[in-house]
Amino acid sequence: MHEVRAVGSRSLGSVLARVASMIATYLVLVGYFIVAVYPLVWMVLTSLKSGRDIFLDPFAPPDWANPCWSNFGNAWVTGHFGDYFLSTVYVTVATVAATLLLSAMAAYALARFVFPGVKPLLFYFLAGLMVPMQLAIVPLFFQMKAMHLLNSRPGLITAYVAFGMPFSIFILTGFFRSLPTSLHESAVLDGASEFRAFWHVMLPLARSGLITIAILTFIGTWNEFLMAFMFLSGEGSERLRTLPLGLANITIVSQYRSDWGMAFAGLVLAMLPALLVYSLLQKHLTKGITLGALKG
């Protein structure tokens, strides 16, 4: 009888421990969700307030009877947000396309072919992951100046692609190594050239890895500030500015008066594309990083 009670007590204690652990886990997750989401909600609500209301009570909700929708129009027109937006779209799309193409070709060659120096070459690319951008920005600035690429979108895109390729090659190399060799051999035996086998057979099979690289490159380029500030800060480069530079300048309007309502509206407009892309493709992002890391 005592043994039955002891076993029952241990079972009850184990159940209570699991329930307590589950409750603690959910509380931590809910707390993290609130911490992560609240700043975004506060930013959206603040974008609907006037500058006076923001200073009087920054954490109060906007006047729903008279929200300041004009902040978004002012940000787009007066703050030249439309120009910054189009410039960022151009730079981001070009960077994503170039990074995907070059990284995929390099990763495919490193993963599928055996030639002298393949491992040192792979380690050479991966060494780029260990170089902080802040450490390379000064010598890169002078190199870009010598190549007459300062204050130009091609120069900025080239720098973004160079810094994005090491991680992209690391992920895609793992994907290409995981693909069956028989598919490549069948395509070649059917008369396909090496490039055609890569483009029409192997590349579509690495779709998850490509989507992962595209998302990370998109978000990183869309929000990047330091290199854009260094390479697009010369005279006459106002029309080339990207969103982070524009947002840094959008708070200053006529006679150096800060328009915080317009600034928060600009932040909301800048956040929406990245948030939308991540929300739609985050399933592929999680899958791509996991598979690429494990198979690499």
Structure description:
The chain is mainly alpha-helical and 296 residues long. The protein folds into two domains: 2-46; 73-295, MetI-like fold, CATH 1.10.3720.10. Helix content is 77%, strand content 0%. The protein contains 13 helices and no strands. Helix 4 runs antiparallel to helix 10 (207-223) and helix 4 (81-112) packs antiparallel against helix 12. The longest helix has 45 residues, at 2-46. The chain is globular. The N and C termini lie far apart (57 Å).
Uncertain residue ranges:
292-296
How far apart lie the N and C ends?
Answer: 57 Å
Kindly estimate the percentage of residues that lie in beta strands according to DSSP. Answer: under 5%
The CATH homologous superfamily of the largest domain is termed: MetI-like
Helix content class: over 70%
State the main characteristics.
2 domains, about 300 residues, 13 helices, MetI-like fold, mainly alpha
Concise description?
By secondary structure, this protein is mainly α. It has helices spanning 2-46, 51-56, 70-76, 81-112, 118-126, 133-146, 153-178, 181-189, 194-205, 207-223, 226-231, 243-250, 260-295.
Which helices and strands, and how do they pair?
Elements: H1 2-46, H2 51-56, H3 70-76, H4 81-112, H5 118-126, H6 133-146, H7 153-178, H8 181-189, H9 194-205, H10 207-223, H11 226-231, H12 243-250, H13 260-295
